[in-house]
Amino acid sequence: MRQDPFGNQGNGGQRRRGGGLFGNIRWVILLGFAVYGGCYYFGNRSVDPYTGEKVLIDSSLNASEEKAMGLQAYQEILAQERPVDPNSQIARQVREIANRLIAKVDVVETSLAQEHGLQPQHFAKDFEWDVNVLQSDEANAFCLPGGKMAVYTGLIPVAQNADALAVVMGHEIAHALLRHGAQRMAQQKLTQIGQMAGAASGMDVQQQQMMMSAMGYGYLLPYARSHETQADEVGLMLAAAACFNPEEAVPLWQRMSQASGGQAPPEFSSTHPNPGTRIQNLQALMPKALEYRQRYCTAGAAAR
Length: 304
Ligand SMILES: [Zn+2]
Known about the structure:
Blueprint: H1 25-43, E1 45-47, E2 54-56, H2 63-80, H3 89-102, H4 105-115, E3 130-134, E4 141-143, E5 148-152, H5 156-159, H6 162-177, H7 180-200, H8 205-241, H9 249-260, H10 275-296
Parallel strand pairs: 3-5
Antiparallel strand pairs: 1-2, 4-5
Helix pairs in contact: 1-7, 3-6, 6-8, 7-8, 8-10, 9-10
């Protein structure tokens, strides 16, 4: 995603307390935070219908709040960027691709949920989908919670064709469907609980930084990578069901990694899987994608 719409709120928990006054206090405080963190973690677990995996999403965050946050972020982004004329040929083409993908959200969710023995939740039923093309050299795109999307003009020459563009847009839509933004918020909350625990128990700044970087490498980064892998899978199924050629995904990601040349936007660089691994994953998914295409690409769905 181009920009984190839920940006880290920072934390107000940097107070130092009770240094070495009572040796046991530190452990009591740490235990208290561990219990709090544990309650938060286990109290907010749910099963995602698309992947069948347990995910951490704050149960107090409902769909309309998430949508409102996405909408607010979208308006801020549009105010800063240069959207191209919605009637231009490129804007119309991108909108058509988006519409074809969106039309398959329900059927793909239902199908993936069934594969995991789950019921679809139709979380996206109240999304207010919209897409704009933004003038920029970045080869990037995003879809915010609530369904507001953008494609940067810099992506067009890398995508080269509608099938590849559909793969990228499907990937972005999948992030919104999988509620990855809400999962990151919950993760940030856990991280803040960890920071508060560190500060309150009297760890010095260096110890706190070590703890945070260990969490970053051990937990947050792999987590971000698994989100990318999930978005690749769900996005590929959407593209296939919408009658695009999923096989374009492999050369597309090869071009993306070439084009990125060390200065890729965040969405397509640091948090993304190693390009070789990503391509292997996509190749492994190809039989399923082709099956989705055969099963769900019905007459009238494709303009090709
Ligand atoms: Zn992604």
